[in-house]
């Protein structure tokens, strides 16, 4: 039945009669320009408040692609959307000709990189009432409007990196864009091969007093080779605006590692730890999007089909010197299929932009895991270890939304979504359950002047379960196991946000945002009980958790000191808190505390067509809590410089130097005698990895 419905919906889009419709996007783009900003003829404001950037504004940066142009829009940062099943939550904050990309598997930056700058007519920054029903939960959107008479263009990019310990990584990218009988098409092929990282360091064990009892050097590297082809086609089929995207990715990742351990006070190694991680694809995806007026409404139909193949194995051996070597292998082979369709109708009624619709989708996971042992005669399967998990989710969602432009400076958005989900699992932990959740949202946008923007929102956010948490998994190098959990429930979050933005001139921007999240059925690592005894651990639900924090971003032009000079900085800070299900004491949630800071000083010389910058990043701090241990990754800081030269026709040369002083990454693990519940420590483990300076260069040639 569902396939018949999809065919009927597609037929309606292709043959339905025309209807006059003035959509909210048309209002944003077709109304006459009201004012110019900052005395710059390349930046204007439309009658409904959308900022319009013409190519003349971006000429100072000599952009090659639409991605280069969007990067220079003041106060805007690309948000890719969430990696979730279905389509409703995966929408990013970039539109192309008023439409979102039809595929979830290409990043927005990837889409923008396939559009030559010469094909862009204008870029619009939509905020408040200018967004109408297009927001998808975002306070601002970028709309890249292409020229109708785009010409063919071809470019090739060759990149090479001289990275840690003299590793050379070659990469190639070939992009072709064209227009054939009114249809825009794009072809992008890229491939790469090489060792992404090669890390030398040391690790060892300490006792309860902090004395080192074992120590030795460690070494690992990541080798990656991949090839990808991306095809895009868009145009009008009759009066139906249509877009198709196809992606195929083949990859192979390998990570050999080894440690040589020596006891304190001895000169010769007594143990060698070694292993090999291996994973490969391929992945394939297809997306289609159709838009047309239907009986006075703007109708939109989006269809996706995708498959991810993950064929992985992990080898590890911890062998005493002079003894026969034994290795253990864990294999995990999985296939994930997703099919989804979304139908939406939108219309403007006076000051109201109304939209309604729904989506439905099917996601399947088929995973098989096995243990093998190698005592010298090859890897032999342990028959009792075989584990197979099959998970299927049928998910549907309906929504209705209204954006009310109360006056030119104030708009209000209300949205109500209802989600139905049925998850069934086969295998050792067979189970089936259904959920129904309401997800309301209320947001307000206030613009007392073109320079000030205030956004606030409150909404109910429903998380999605990671299918891998249903399956048994193991980390051989750390000795951790995830038993799998058939009783998982999605977390539900009441999320409140507030942001204030101040703009000045044509490029100056300061934005400060606040986030508060109260989480029900929060997900974390919980103990697994059998006959009243803890026998393992798995991802599971706890009653509640809390998270809050703020974001800060600044673009500060310094043209008064030197034309083309500016400072950019961003700061992201998050604090999380929950009651530990093992110790019953407060702690952070795994991976939920973020402390990131970035700063950059950049100079762009428009006349000589070169730019340069220096940057500083202070990386994240991470924690993780398991049954027998806790982990801490301290923050890491690094800096670098980069530059770009475009003074030769149709040629762009880019270079960067990262980690001029190198970087040491540390990790600490505290072990417990019985479990973290009793708090009795049993020493711990420390590890550090040294990264050497990395030099990269790329050459892009327009053919």
Would you kindly provide a brief summary of this structure?
The chain is mainly beta and 703 residues long.
For this structure, what is the CATH class? Mainly Beta
Averaged pLDDT, please?
84
CATH architecture: Beta Barrel
Helix content: under 10%
- Rg value: 27 Å
Global shape = globular
Q: How far is the N terminus from the C terminus?
A: 49 Å
Number of domains: 1
Tell me the structural class. mainly beta
Instruction: Note the total helix count.
Output: 5
How many extended strands? Answer: 37
Low-confidence stretches: 1-38
Under CATH, the homologous superfamily reads TonB-dependent receptor, beta-barrel domain
CATH topology: Maltoporin, Chain A
What does the main sheet amount to?
29 strands, antiparallel
Strand content: over 45%
Core attributes:
single chain; 703 residues; mainly beta; Maltoporin, Chain A; 6-stranded mixed beta sheet; 5 helices; 37 strands; disordered N terminus
């Amino acid at each position: 039945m569902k396939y018949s419905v999809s065919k009927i919906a597609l037929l309606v889009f292709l043959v339905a009669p025309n209807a006059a419709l003035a959509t909210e996007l048309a209002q944003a783009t077709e109304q006459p320009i009201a004012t110019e900003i900052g005395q710059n003829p390349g930046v204007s404001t439309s009658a409904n408040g959308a900022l319009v950037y013409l190519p003349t504004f971006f000429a100072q940066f000599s952009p090659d692609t639409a991605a280069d142009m969007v990067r220079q829009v003041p106060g805007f940062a690309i948000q890719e959307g969430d990696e979730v099943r279905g389509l409703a939550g995966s929408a990013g904050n970039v539109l192309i000709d008023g439409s979102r990309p039809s595929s979830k598997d290409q990043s927005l930056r990837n889409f923008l990189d396939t559009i030559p700058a010469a094909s862009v007519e204008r870029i619009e920054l939509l905020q408040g009432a200018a967004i109408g029903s297009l927001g998808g939960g975002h306070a601002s959107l970028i709309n890249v409007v292409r020229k109708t008479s785009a010409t063919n263009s071809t470019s090739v990019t060759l990149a090479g990196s001289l990275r840690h310990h003299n590793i050379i990584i070659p990469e190639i990218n070939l992009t072709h864009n064209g227009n054939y009988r009114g249809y825009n098409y794009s072809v992008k092929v890229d491939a790469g091969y090489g060792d992404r990282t090669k890390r030398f360091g040391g690790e060892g064990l300490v006792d309860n007093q902090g004395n080192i009892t074992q120590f030795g050097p460690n070494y690992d590297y990541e080798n990656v080779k991949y090839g990808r082809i991306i095809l895009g086609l868009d145009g009008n089929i009759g009066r139906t605006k249509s877009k198709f995207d196809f992606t195929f990715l083949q990859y192979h990742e390998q990570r050999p590692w080894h440690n040589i351990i020596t006891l304190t006070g001895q000169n010769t190694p007594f143990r060698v730890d070694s292993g090999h991680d291996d994973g490969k694809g391929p992945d394939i995806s297809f997306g289609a999007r159709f838009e047309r007026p239907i009986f006075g409404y703007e109708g939109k139909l989006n269809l996706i089909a995708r498959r991810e193949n993950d064929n992985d194995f992990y080898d590890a051996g911890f062998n005493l010197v002079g003894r026969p070597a034994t290795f253990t292998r864990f294999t995990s082979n999985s296939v994930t299929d997703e099919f989804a369709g979304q139908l939406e109708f939108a219309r403007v009624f006076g000051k109201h932009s109304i939209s309604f619709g729904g989506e439905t989708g099917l996601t399947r996971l088929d995973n098989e895991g096995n243990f093998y042992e190698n005592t010298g005669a090859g890897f032999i399967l342990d028959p009792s270890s075989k584990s197979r998990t099959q998970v299927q989710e049928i998910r549907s969602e309906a929504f209705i939304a209204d954006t009310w432009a109360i006056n030119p400076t104030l708009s209000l958005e209300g949205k109500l979504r209802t989600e139905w989900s049925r998850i069934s699992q086969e295998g050792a932990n067979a189970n089936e359950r259904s959920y129904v959740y309401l997800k309301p949202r209320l947001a307000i946008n206030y613009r007392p002047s073109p320079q000030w923007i205030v956004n606030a929102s409150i909404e109910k956010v429903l998380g999605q379960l990671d299918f891998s948490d249903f399956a048994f998994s193991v980390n051989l190098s750390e000795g951790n196991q995830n038993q799998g959990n058939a009783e998982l429930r999605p977390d539900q979050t009441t999320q409140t946000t507030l942001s204030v933005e101040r703009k000045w001139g044509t490029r100056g921007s300061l934005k400060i945002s606040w986030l508060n999240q109260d989480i029900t059925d929060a997900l974390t690592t919980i103990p697994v009980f059998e006959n009243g005894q803890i026998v393992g651990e798995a991802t599971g639900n706890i009653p509640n958790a809390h998270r809050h924090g703020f974001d800060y971003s600044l673009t500060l032009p310094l043209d008064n000191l030197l034309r083309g000079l500016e400072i950019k900085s961003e700061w992201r800070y998050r604090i999380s808190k929950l009651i530990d299900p093992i110790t019953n004491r407060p702690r952070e949630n795994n991976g939920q505390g973020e402390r990131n800071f970035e700063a950059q000083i950049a100079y762009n010389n428009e006349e000589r067509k070169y730019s340069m910058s220096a940057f500083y990043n202070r990386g994240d701090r991470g924690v993780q809590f398991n049954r027998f241990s806790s982990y801490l990754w301290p923050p890491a800081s690094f800096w670098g410089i980069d530059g770009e030269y475009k003074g030769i026709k149709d040629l762009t040369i880019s270079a960067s130097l990262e980690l001029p002083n190198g970087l040491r990454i540390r990790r600490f693990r505290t072990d417990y005698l019985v479990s973290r519940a009793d708090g009795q420590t049993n020493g711990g483990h420390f590890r550090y990895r040294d990264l050497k300076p990395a030099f990269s260069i790329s050459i892009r040639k327009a053919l």
